[in-house]
Amino acid sequence: MPLYEHVYLARQDLSTQQVEELTTTLSGVIAAQGGKVTKSEYWGLKSLSYRIAKNRKAHLTLLNIDAPSAALNEVERQERISEDVLRYLTIRVEEHEEGPSAMMRKSDRDDRSDRGDRGDRGDRPRRPRRDEGDDIADVVVEE
Fold it and tell me: How would DSSP label each residue in the chain?
């Protein structure tokens, strides 16, 4: 059977328990169609880059699915009907990623504060500000 990664965004005013119940319902739909959910990750309540249906935040959940395409069609139909689901995205993959996803890896998030090979940029000369030194109006061109 084909492998899929499915992510959905649920409304911000739902509780974590309600989001987990929604995930259980979607997993049941997949199981009824002859597929299975191999991994389910709740990524938490995250801020959105832009508003979606007057929501500034959303609960994000990832499902790794091994199911026929008919099962995914039914899940997406259920999500379109549901008022709790803001957006969803399903991608077909060759194989599922082992271990936690990139969103769940704590070590990757801790490395963001490191400047990498850029250093502190202390080796560059500081440009004078406009109010320091010569102004354009003070420069007289000699002819």
Answer: --EEEEEEEEETTS-HHHHHHHHHHHHHHHHHTT-EEEEEEEEEEEEEEEEETTEEEEEEEEEEEE--HHHHHHHHHHHHH-SSEEEEEEEEESSPPSSS-TTT-HHHHHGGG--GGGTT-TTSPPPPPTTSS--TTT-----
